[in-house]
Design brief:
2 helices; four-stranded mixed β-sheet; globular; alpha+beta; 32% helix; single chain
Length: 90
């Protein structure tokens, strides 16, 4: 997949899901499911470096059960994305 300048490079926990943004293109998508986040990654691309806002570290303040909930969701979605797009198992 070709990574565009509008690919995902910033994350925020929001209402029990993860917002995916681009520093040049704004909000690219939001999902509270692994498959939804993987779809956003597939359709928008993922930058070489992805940064997270402080809400990713304090996800319980944004609708997750635990503070690491948003990061766990993102990491599971990365595994699905890597398998589908790169053929690499997590």
């Amino acid at each position: 997949m070709t990574i565009s300048e509008n690919s995902i490079d910033y994350l925020n926990a929001h209402k029990g899901g993860v917002q995916c943004s681009s520093s040049t293109g704004g909000l690219l998508g939001w999902s509270a499911s692994v498959s939804g986040l993987a779809y956003i990654m597939e359709t928008k691309g993922v930058a070489e470096e992805v940064f997270g806002g402080s809400s990713m570290d304090f996800a319980s303040e944004s609708g997750f059960e635990t503070d690491d909930g948003a990061l766990k969701l993102w990491n599971k979605a990365i595994e699905v994305y890597n398998w589908k797009v790169n053929g690499v198992a997590g």
